[in-house]
Structures are given as C-alpha cells and as structure tokens.
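Curious: can you check?
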Amino acid sequence: MRVRRISTATALAVLFSSVALFGAGTAAADSSRSLPITSSGDIVVDKVHQRIFISDPQSGKIVATDYTGTVVGTVPDLPGVTGLQLAPDYATLYAAVPGASAITAFDTASLTESGRYATGEGTTPRHLALAGQKLWFGYGSGSDGDLGSLDLSGAEPVVTLGQEGDVEFTRAPRLAATPGAPGTLATATDQSSLAVYDVAGDRAGLTARSQTTSTSSIDDLALTPDGTRLVTANRSGTQHRVWQTTDLSEQPAYATAYYPNAVAIAEDGTVAAGSESWSEPDIQIFQPGATTPLRNYMFSSTSGSENLGTAGLAWEPDGTRLFAVSNNGGTHTLRVLSAPRKSVTKITVNAPSTATRAKPLTVSGTVSASLPLPAGTPLTVTRTDMESPTGKSLGTKTLNADGTFSFSDTPPSGGTVTYKVSYAGSATHTPTYASDSVLVSRTATTLTLNNNKKVYAWGSEVKFTAHLGATYKNRTVSIYADPEGLYAPKRLVRTAVVNSEGNISATITLTRDTTVSATFAGDSRTLGRTASSWVGTRVRVATSLSGSYKTAKIGSLYYQYFKTTATPVHKTSMSAYEYRRYRITIQVYANGAWHYNDVDNDYFPVGTPGVQLVGFNEPGYRFRIRSSYIPGTSASGDSVNTITHSSWRYFTFVR
C-alpha cells in the first residue's frame, strides 16, 4: 500500500452564488447543434445550472453548453482531458487531465479553476467516479492500468495509488458509481478485467471480478441506481451485457446493435444503450427490467456516417432529457433528445379512396406503440373539406382493446375530404397524428364559350360570352386570354359572378391567334369546369405601287399604267413581329386566266422600304401583285397569326 500526501495551499474554493448564466426551459422537440470540438472524451450534465460539460482530449479543453447546445463557456489548456465528474451538489466539476498528471476542479457557475490535485508523475489519470466519499480515478498508460483515489475530506488532499488489487488492467480503467450504492465502484477495460470494489473503507476492496477469458473491449459501463447490476457496452457483438455486481455473474443482456460503445442509466433505472452502427439504431431506450426497447433513435445524415461517440451519452438526472455526442467525419454534434422515456406512438388512418357525397362512409385505423395504449384511449377527429377548410371537429373517438378504431361519417361536401386523427400524448407516450383523404363525388355542370374557330381582322374587338349551368353555391367564372407567341403570356381578362341567365362576357382586342378560356373553379358540391375557344387573327397588311403615270379600267378592274421605261416599286406595310417576313406573289394574265410567275414568289422582311419590279415591262401584258403572311414556314419567321393576303394590285406597261 502506498499513500502519498500532497501539501498544497490550494483548498476547495468557496462556492460562488449558484446563478446560471444561461437558463433553458423544457425542450419541445429533439434538436441538435454542432460543437466546437475535435474529439469527445466524456459528457456530464449539471441540473442546477442546466449545463452540459463535454471534454475534448485532442484539443485539450472542456466545452460548456446550455440545454439547447449553445456554447456558454470553454476551459482550455487541459492536455488530454478526458474523464469528468460532478460533485453531488453540482457546484464543482472535476476533470482528469492526463497530460498534467492531475485532477483539476472548476466552479460550475463561473468555470474558474478552484483546485488542482497532482496524482503523481507519469500517472496520467483518465477516468473519474465519486464513491465512498472519495474521487476515484483510473490511470496508467500503454498496457498498464491502475486504480487510485483522491480524498478531499481532510485538511489536505490525499492521493492513494495502486488500489486495483490482483486485477490486471490493460489500460486506464473506466469507472462507474451510483449515489444509490455509495460504497460500490465498478471498473473495466475488457471483460477479463471487469471488477467490482467495496470503497466504503480506507482502501478499495475487491469483491468480484469477471472470470471470462474474452478480451472484448468495454467502451463504457454504468451501474443501476441500486448498484445491483452493471451494464457494459462491449464493442464486439450486438448486445449491451448485464452483470450482477455481487459476483459478476452474467444476466440477460439487452439485444441492441453492432458495436456497442455507450451506456447511461437514469435515476429511475431507464437504460440508454448506444452503438456505433451505421445501419441500425444509434440509441435504444429500455425501461427498468424490460428487454424490448421502449424507443429507438437513428441519427440522420446525408452521408450516412454519423455515429454516436464513445461514452457519448448522459441523462439529465431526472430523466427528462437524454444528451448524446455524435461524430460525422470530424464534425461533432450535441443531440438533445427531449422525451426519451416516452413510447413513440404511431397512428395509421384508412379512408376509402372514393365516396359519394351525403352517403355514410367508414374510416378506420390503428394506434401502435412499444407500450400499447389501453382500451378507451381518446382520439380526436377532425374533418377538413371545402366547406370547412380550417377543419371541423367530429368529436372524440375511443381506442379498442386491440389497438384499432373506426367511425362513420357522412360528408356534406364533395371534393377532397381529409380525416385527421390525433392523440394528445401522456406522461408515457408521445403525441402524434395521422390523416387520410377521400375523393367525394360532386355533380358535373356545363360551361360553354362562343366564337370557337372564328377568324377576325387584326385589332378587332371581339365579345366572348361564357354560359354556366346549374351549380350549388359558386357562380363565379373567370375568362382568360392566351395569345400565341412570345411576350404575351396568358392573362386574366375578367372574373365575375354570372348574370341571372348564367352568362358572363368579356371583350378582347385581337392582334394574334388567341385561345380564350372560361374557368369555373367549382364548389363543395359541383365539379370545376373549363371551356376553351380558339380564334384566328389575320395580320394588318396594306400595299401600294409607285411610278405609274395613270390609272384606268380594263374590263371591270382598275390598272396602273407604266411606261416600258419605268420600274414599278411595290411597298408593303404589315403588323410587325420579331423576324417576320412577307411573301410577294406576281401573276400574269394569259389565255383568259391568271398564272403564277414562279420566280417571283419571294419573301422580304417586314419594314423593307420597297421592292423594285424589274423585267415586267413588256407592253401589252397584264400583271397583278399582292403581299401575303404565310404562318408556319421557316421563310415567314413566325406563326402567331392566321394566313392573310393583301388585295391585288393590277398593272400593265405601254410604250
């Protein structure tokens, strides 16, 4: 036995006033927040100041957050800091600092250092636990681990090393203690070095050790509140193993997930079992004595590689919240689980896909939970439809003994009718709701629109009239115009209630081919309807011939006369559109009929100043010419109007 007394002028600091710098209310839902750490060693929860302390061995610091994960303080310059332990009154935080071979104490309200206790050169303490009125620490480096204690009850702190007995720890052992069994301390590095000590006396007395020969690593361990059971997170396998502390005989385990790496037990005995599994639950919650999980948590991550940190679980002491530290590619997150001891409730609702309005229909469903709800559990039902868009209460329905429910309803409204079933939750179950929709029949009506397939001159003001048949309540119709082409989107022309004859009219000025539509949105008992009419619009076109010396009739037609030495100029004015071109057609009269001059059916850009007619000055021949808009050809450039021809211009030549 070696007892080392350390004289120091530093005693435990007088506690500051217990005023939390940041408060936090009860969390309404699970949340998460990134942490400014590069590794995680341990996590403890201070219920008095509502703070969470997380050690970062790699960066050598402790980060303090409030219950939302907001950082409220940082303690740097703690090389390798790992194990954390709160005093029973939550006034002091102890930290194992292996790089300094010391245990450091901090005031939890101010995060100022209140004491530093050297554990001996090269001891490198890593893990802490309070038991038997002493602060115990697992220490050692490499493959040599030992157990020591720090006694702060006297005038001077006393460090006692080498209390592991005949247990060989392959590294600094992890420790577990519980206020309900203050004289019990559990230690572990792997299954073969799992041990329980009586620490009520001056030294630790070994009371039980594991007899297994397995070398499975134990990443975390925790005692039940009464100290009779020990739960370990063994990295190999898919179980959190359970041991009776009196003799370390193995008890029925918790079937969890691959790579167990964390465990925390609440004051009421609820077990949080964590695993570093990518495809299975990260955390599973077990009620005291139960082997089926009350609920499961699986971290969401776009990369699918977010895992629970080793020993990364801690309960709020009363069990209201569970805190977890996760790691995703080096990014650490604090997850706050707000109702871990509540069974997750799930509702399914099944309504028929279709139904007839004003006829009864039946809605059924189930309510399931890991803790089944009792018969008679009240469920609130709401119906949402076109007449009750914010929902109408259908009262309370009750759950059957087999977890099912059903009710009948006669929907007064057609269209989509949604039934929402809600459970308010309880002290043991989470609230939830679900819904399903049914398409309820509505009566068809008629809607017509005039002028379909008519063609109008450019700039015509055309009156369109829609006629609406019988409906339930809604008598509003909207008329839209959708011209062809660019830069003219569909627009609302008029919305109004139809007159006593069921009609609504709107006047539209036409400059392009246009689809006009009338829309009735429907009502709670009448289906919506749309009627459309397509109307063509000709372009505006005018032509002229210049250079003639007279105009006179030949037969019944007026001709412009040109000298054979003259060159006529044909000019065309046409309503413009981007890249629009018009076609010139010239015909010659022979043998009592007009014939095309094939070489002169040419296209010209709108806006061309004039086209000279060369090669037509043979005396005695009669000609005619016109300009045309021909939609839908590459030569014309667009197709937003209906085919349009100008009037013919007649001309002849004389000597």
User: Anything to note?
Assistant: Confidence is low (pLDDT under 50) at residues 1-28. The chain has no helices and 56 strands.
